Amino acid sequence: MGIITTKDLNLYYGDKQAINSINMDIEKNRITALIGPSGCGKTTFLKTLNRMNDTIPNCKITGEVIFDGINIYDNKIDPMLVRKKMGMVFQKPNPFPMSIYDNIAYAPKYHGKKKRELDEIVEKSLKAAALWEEVKDRLKKSALSLSGGQQQRLCIARTIALNPEVILMDEATSALDPISTYKIEDLMGELKKTYTVVIVTHNMQQASRIADRTAFFLLGDLVEYDTTENIFVNPRNQKTLDYVSGHFG
């Protein structure tokens, strides 16, 4: 069993079923990529992993998501605690309109951390996101003054500040230039030494470069899930072969 295991996981928006009976083990300290055409359910699936779909009206989820041995959809589980352990980085960088320092310190301060602890958390998180050397002399400057790539790494640092076990990334490089994308990909390789990383990407070259395992989604179904090499070189399913070879999608 992986750090996250889904069992017969289904999600409905009203009468429309968006993901269909997904059974999947996500391995610890690995990068898992979710690929597939637009509307195939990969982002919806990603957001079920830390209960981010809970607030959507008429959204119904059945099945289980087991994280650290506990079903996170048990009624006794606080979704906020789940999201603290499984942080999300979104497609478009979304720094808070405040200083670089306060972006990182905001959540730990809310959870009761004091100034000395906050200083340590900010430095550690920025170093983990490979941003410390670039911003250490301007921590009181607005986060909005950073470049797009720096802002995205700041958002990763902000996620790290809460000491998660899992980092979920929803197309985290699609709005970035190639150089910034390379830096984020390089960073992911470092992050998996400490965290489990799950990414949604439309960029199949990116998945093939950085992912240890890849899952191919189509029309809400998990068509195939295997090592990245097998998915791209020797897929078992014809639909997977058609997609990764560019015949559709």
TrEMBL record:
An example Gene Ontology biological process: phosphate ion transmembrane transport
ABC transporter domain mapped to chain residues: 4-244
InterPro entries reported for this sequence: AAA+_ATPase, ABC_transporter-like_ATP-bd, ABC_transporter-like_CS, P-loop_NTPase, PstB-like
Keyword terms: ATP-binding, Nucleotide-binding, Transport
Gene Ontology annotations for the cellular component aspect, listed alphabetically: membrane
One matching Pfam family: ABC_tran
Molecular-function GO term, any one: phosphate transmembrane transporter activity
PANTHER family membership: ABC TRANSPORTER I FAMILY MEMBER 17
NCBIfam families: 3a0107s01c2
Protein name: Phosphate ABC transporter ATP-binding protein, PhoT family
Native source species: Anaerocolumna xylanovorans DSM 12503
